[in-house]
């Protein structure tokens, strides 16, 4: 989420991108003292970040009550309902088995020469490769 733009994930992606950049800089700066820094960029795993329908109902009501009329008109309830549906259905496409992530963490902690970047999970690197090597219109289409 921090390496490629994902619709409806602006804030989440921005925070991941900042963490990724921070990790990269720390890896470079701390290497002179023999300190290894590894970043782990997993593919989709079920973590509970998307919340539950009850939580979404509460947040949606609170959001709609606090939005200005202009913003509510610009985005509309359809956008908010679409976001809710998108995030609540996301776990169906995510892996429940976190062992690849745990394995990457274990390797990063215990290896004599840990990798600077781990991408556990099925196809974690594929969207990033498409984003980097294909025209942007191709990535945006998919």
TrEMBL record:
Pfam families: adh_short. SUPFAM superfamilies: NAD(P)-binding Rossmann-fold domains. GO terms for molecular function: estradiol 17-beta-dehydrogenase [NAD(P)+] activity; testosterone dehydrogenase (NAD+) activity. One of its GO terms (biological process) is steroid metabolic process. Belongs to the short-chain dehydrogenases/reductases (SDR) family. PANTHER family: 17-BETA-HYDROXYSTEROID DEHYDROGENASE TYPE 2 (PTHR43313:SF3), SHORT-CHAIN DEHYDROGENASE/REDUCTASE FAMILY 9C (PTHR43313). This is Estradiol 17-beta-dehydrogenase 2. It comes from Eurypyga helias. The lineage of its organism: Eukaryota, Metazoa, Chordata, Craniata, Vertebrata.
């Amino acid at each position: 989420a921090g390496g490629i733009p994902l619709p409806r994930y602006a804030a989440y992606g921005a925070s991941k991108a900042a963490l990724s950049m921070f990790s990269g800089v720390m890896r470079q700066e701390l290497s002179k003292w023999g300190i290894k820094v590894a970043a782990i960029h997993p593919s989709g795993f079920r973590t509970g970040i998307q919340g539950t329908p009850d939580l979404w109902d509460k947040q949606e009501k609170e959001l709609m009550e606090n939005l200005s009329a202009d913003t509510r008109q610009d985005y509309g309830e359809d956008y908010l309902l679409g976001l809710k549906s998108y995030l609540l259905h996301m776990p169906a496409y995510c892996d429940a088995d976190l062992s690849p992530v745990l394995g990457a963490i274990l390797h990063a902690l215990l290896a004599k020469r840990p990798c600077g970047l781990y991408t556990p999970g099925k196809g974690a690197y594929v969207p990033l490769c498409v984003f980097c090597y294909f025209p942007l219109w191709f990535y945006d289409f998919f």
